[in-house]
Amino acid sequence: MSTARRRYASIADTAAYLGVTPRTIRQMIADGRLTGYRNGSRLIRLDLAEVDASMEPMSGGAA
Is the pTM for the entire model greater than 0.85? Predict the structure, then answer.
């Protein structure tokens, strides 16, 4: 049995990871596309494995 370790990142680090702004990450948390984990009243972290899993492939070819 393998236990995957969570990789938590700040909002700024997650934004850099995805190539978007921190404001975009906050909006994605607010609308439910990403899950933020709060530790205390201000500290918010995101699990990078969940961020990767939330990505959906796009079809780019013509039918």
Answer: no
The 8 Å CB, 24+ separation contacts for 37-44 are 37/8, 44/10, 44/11
CB 25 within 8 A of CB 18: yes
Digit-coded pLDDT (tens) for 14-55: 999 999 999 999 999 999 999 999 988 899 999 999 999 998
Pairwise CA distance, residues 33 & 17, whole Å: 16
Q: Which residues contact 61 (CB under 8 A, 6 or more apart)?
A: none
- Residue 29: what are its φ and ψ, rounded to 5°? -70, -45
Q: Which of 58, 60, 52, 61 is nearest to 17 (CA)?
A: 52
